[in-house]
Amino acid sequence: MASKTEALIAGSIAGFVVDVSLFPIDTIKTRMQSRHGLKMLGIADLHKLRGVGAAAIGSMPSSALYFLAYEQIKKKMTNYGLLQYVFASSIGECLACLVRVPTEVVKQRVQAKQAPSTLSSLRMVLQSVGFR
Protein backbone atom coordinates (compact mmCIF):
# COMPACT_ATOMS: atom_id res chain seq x y z
CA MET A 1 0.00 0.00 0.00
CA ALA A 2 1.46 3.34 -1.06
CA SER A 3 1.85 6.19 1.42
CA LYS A 4 0.25 9.55 0.65
CA THR A 5 3.58 11.00 -0.44
CA GLU A 6 4.36 8.02 -2.66
CA ALA A 7 0.92 8.22 -4.28
CA LEU A 8 1.32 11.95 -4.94
CA ILE A 9 4.80 11.56 -6.41
CA ALA A 10 3.94 8.47 -8.47
CA GLY A 11 0.78 10.11 -9.80
CA SER A 12 2.56 13.33 -10.70
CA ILE A 13 5.37 11.58 -12.54
CA ALA A 14 3.05 9.15 -14.32
CA GLY A 15 0.71 11.91 -15.47
CA PHE A 16 3.56 14.08 -16.69
CA VAL A 17 5.29 11.28 -18.62
CA VAL A 18 2.11 10.04 -20.29
CA ASP A 19 0.73 13.45 -21.26
CA VAL A 20 4.00 14.85 -22.56
CA SER A 21 4.93 11.70 -24.49
CA LEU A 22 1.50 11.44 -26.12
CA PHE A 23 1.20 15.18 -26.75
CA PRO A 24 1.93 15.07 -30.52
CA ILE A 25 -0.77 12.42 -31.04
CA ASP A 26 -3.20 14.39 -28.89
CA THR A 27 -2.47 17.52 -30.93
CA ILE A 28 -3.24 15.72 -34.21
CA LYS A 29 -6.51 14.41 -32.73
CA THR A 30 -7.50 17.85 -31.44
CA ARG A 31 -6.76 19.54 -34.76
CA MET A 32 -8.70 16.91 -36.69
CA GLN A 33 -11.68 17.44 -34.38
CA SER A 34 -11.60 21.22 -34.74
CA ARG A 35 -14.00 23.01 -37.04
CA HIS A 36 -11.28 23.33 -39.68
CA GLY A 37 -10.51 19.62 -39.57
CA LEU A 38 -7.80 18.31 -41.86
CA LYS A 39 -7.08 21.79 -43.25
CA MET A 40 -5.34 22.77 -40.02
CA LEU A 41 -3.62 19.47 -39.34
CA GLY A 42 -0.23 21.15 -39.72
CA ILE A 43 1.97 18.16 -38.98
CA ALA A 44 5.03 20.23 -39.92
CA ASP A 45 4.60 22.45 -36.86
CA LEU A 46 4.06 19.69 -34.29
CA HIS A 47 7.65 20.14 -33.15
CA LYS A 48 6.66 23.52 -31.68
CA LEU A 49 4.63 21.69 -29.00
CA ARG A 50 2.08 24.49 -28.63
CA GLY A 51 0.08 23.80 -25.47
CA VAL A 52 2.46 21.27 -23.94
CA GLY A 53 2.86 23.59 -20.94
CA ALA A 54 -0.83 23.31 -20.10
CA ALA A 55 -0.70 19.55 -20.56
CA ALA A 56 2.31 19.18 -18.28
CA ILE A 57 1.06 21.58 -15.63
CA GLY A 58 -2.43 20.08 -15.56
CA SER A 59 -1.46 16.43 -15.72
CA MET A 60 0.71 16.43 -12.63
CA PRO A 61 -1.85 17.60 -10.04
CA SER A 62 -4.67 15.76 -11.79
CA SER A 63 -2.88 12.41 -11.76
CA ALA A 64 -1.52 13.00 -8.26
CA LEU A 65 -5.04 13.66 -7.00
CA TYR A 66 -6.33 10.50 -8.68
CA PHE A 67 -3.59 8.30 -7.23
CA LEU A 68 -3.94 9.80 -3.76
CA ALA A 69 -7.72 9.43 -3.65
CA TYR A 70 -7.59 5.94 -5.10
CA GLU A 71 -5.03 4.68 -2.59
CA GLN A 72 -6.69 6.30 0.43
CA ILE A 73 -10.23 5.15 -0.39
CA LYS A 74 -9.01 1.65 -1.26
CA LYS A 75 -7.24 1.51 2.09
CA LYS A 76 -10.42 2.49 3.99
CA MET A 77 -12.69 -0.01 2.18
CA THR A 78 -10.78 -3.24 2.70
CA ASN A 79 -13.80 -5.52 3.25
CA TYR A 80 -15.77 -4.61 0.13
CA GLY A 81 -14.06 -6.74 -2.51
CA LEU A 82 -14.47 -5.48 -6.05
CA LEU A 83 -16.56 -2.53 -4.85
CA GLN A 84 -13.56 -1.01 -3.10
CA TYR A 85 -11.75 -0.71 -6.44
CA VAL A 86 -14.80 0.53 -8.33
CA PHE A 87 -15.58 3.17 -5.72
CA ALA A 88 -11.96 4.23 -5.21
CA SER A 89 -11.29 4.63 -8.93
CA SER A 90 -14.60 6.44 -9.53
CA ILE A 91 -14.02 8.97 -6.75
CA GLY A 92 -10.38 9.38 -7.80
CA GLU A 93 -11.40 10.10 -11.38
CA CYS A 94 -14.07 12.61 -10.34
CA LEU A 95 -11.54 14.50 -8.21
CA ALA A 96 -8.92 14.40 -10.97
CA CYS A 97 -11.43 15.86 -13.44
CA LEU A 98 -11.72 18.97 -11.26
CA VAL A 99 -8.17 19.78 -12.37
CA ARG A 100 -8.03 18.02 -15.74
CA VAL A 101 -11.05 19.56 -17.45
CA PRO A 102 -10.04 23.23 -17.08
CA THR A 103 -6.48 22.51 -18.18
CA GLU A 104 -7.76 20.51 -21.16
CA VAL A 105 -9.81 23.50 -22.31
CA VAL A 106 -6.75 25.75 -22.13
CA LYS A 107 -4.52 23.16 -23.86
CA GLN A 108 -6.96 22.39 -26.66
CA ARG A 109 -7.42 26.05 -27.55
CA VAL A 110 -3.68 26.34 -28.08
CA GLN A 111 -3.51 23.06 -30.00
CA ALA A 112 -6.37 24.16 -32.27
CA LYS A 113 -4.55 27.45 -32.88
CA GLN A 114 -7.31 29.50 -31.25
CA ALA A 115 -4.70 31.07 -28.97
CA PRO A 116 -0.98 31.72 -29.57
CA SER A 117 0.22 30.46 -26.18
CA THR A 118 -0.85 28.67 -23.02
CA LEU A 119 -0.92 31.92 -21.07
CA SER A 120 -3.03 33.74 -23.66
CA SER A 121 -5.37 30.74 -23.80
CA LEU A 122 -5.73 30.84 -20.01
CA ARG A 123 -6.55 34.55 -20.15
CA MET A 124 -9.08 33.96 -22.95
CA VAL A 125 -10.80 31.18 -21.03
CA LEU A 126 -10.94 33.21 -17.83
CA GLN A 127 -12.38 36.21 -19.67
CA SER A 128 -14.97 34.29 -21.68
CA VAL A 129 -15.99 31.58 -19.23
CA GLY A 130 -14.37 32.41 -15.90
CA PHE A 131 -14.93 30.28 -12.84
CA ARG A 132 -18.39 28.73 -12.55
Number of strands: 0
What is the H/E string?
A: HHHHH
- Profile the largest sheet: none
Please report the number of helical segments: 5
Class per helix and strand makeup: mainly alpha
- Shape descriptor: elongated
Radius of gyration: 17 Å
Q: Provide mean pLDDT, rounded.
A: 84
Tell me about this structure.
With 132 residues, the protein is mainly α. The chain is built from 5 helices and no strands. The protein is elongated.
Entry keywords:
single chain; 132 residues; mainly alpha; 5 helices; 72% helix; 0% strand; elongated
Question: Short description, anyone?
Answer:
With 132 residues, this protein is mostly helical. It is 72% helix and 0% strand. The longest helix has 30 residues, at 82-111.
Please render the helix and strand layout as text:
Blueprint lengths: L3 H18 L1 H11 L18 H25 L5 H30 L6 H11 L4
Helix pairs in contact: 1-3, 3-4, 4-5
